[in-house]
Amino acid sequence: xxxxxxxxxxxxxxxxxxxxxxxxxxxxxxxxxxxxxxxxxxxxxxxxxxxxxxxxxxxxxxxxxxxxxxxxxxxxxxxxxxxxxxxxxxxxxxxxxxxxxxxxxxxxxxxxxxxxxxxxxxxxxxxxxxxxxxxxxxxxxxxxxxxxxxxxxxxxxxxxxxxxxxxxxxxxxxxxxxxxxxxxx
Amino acid sequence: xxxxxxxxxxxxxxxxxxxxxxxxxxxxxxxxxxxxxxxxxxxxxxxxxxxxxxxxxxxxxxxxxxxxxxxxxxxxxxxxxxxxxxxxxxxxxxxxxxxxxxxxxxxxxxxxxxxxxxxxxxxxxxxxxxxxxxxxxxxxxxxxxxxxxxxxxxxxxxxxxxxxxxxxxxxxxxxxxxxxxxxxx
Lengths: 185, 185
Prior knowledge:
Two copies of one chain form a homodimer.
Chain A: E1 2-6, H1 10-21, E2 26-30, H2 42-57, E3 61-70, E4 77-78, H3 81-96, E5 104-114, E6 122-132, E7 148-150, H4 157-160, H5 164-167, H6 169-183
């Protein structure tokens, strides 16, 4: 089974490929021009993009959207994490979090899969709760990984290295996706 | 001449209606569900939305997209100003600008107009340069108006009241639009 993973993010592709390979699921990176809808619900974002990608490729495809949702910033940067990261980085988020006592946050991942046998995309969604660190730590992973400490750990995602892929939001959503794939093989 | 202005933003509608009424151009507010594409170029955003709105309404339509682009934040919040305002407000921007010596910024407005006689939307774009204030000032207008001081003034857009509508990015884009409308009446 070879699936098209539509993403322009190399870090994300590497992470997903690594996880899926353990289950003998092959994935190839497909770069397709998609309209990223400016909506706050990442489930709806991924669904819209899976439909668009399937219409263009006419092969089984999946997309993954993720976001960091910070409680004391009303869920910012959320579905717009990639844009916000590009513009203000981890430093910008740390600046916004200065003097905030509530540092609760969660990372969410939404995978939408579409194929010929489906009438509409199937969505797999998961979250990991944690806290925003007081400073950047670690260098693995990508995006806001250096400032997110998952609950039950004292390291950031970027300090956890490969261990991140055992516990991350993306891993949890992928687990649901893998379960579906193996059941419907 | 009655034009459909597609927007869900009451403050924006009021401002545009006020300006256009001086030129005997009537405008009504149309609320249409549009996909707001997550792209950074507000010209492209407005163009996409004008096409979508015209396809749904089949009447002459225009949309207006605006954004605040801050130099020292790499153009943040830009095309995502509405989302960023909703989540972190003026306070969030002021926090990000703390200790930044370069406070240059500009407001941009892009109007896209589509009608039966056009093959694709016509876009009218304008900018107003200025600076980010050190604190919120004034209460008229909406969005980031209380923290933007246009060049040549010492008041923020929110302190300028109706005078804002004589000099704003939106006014300048509307002037181009009005010129086009009167020429093609």
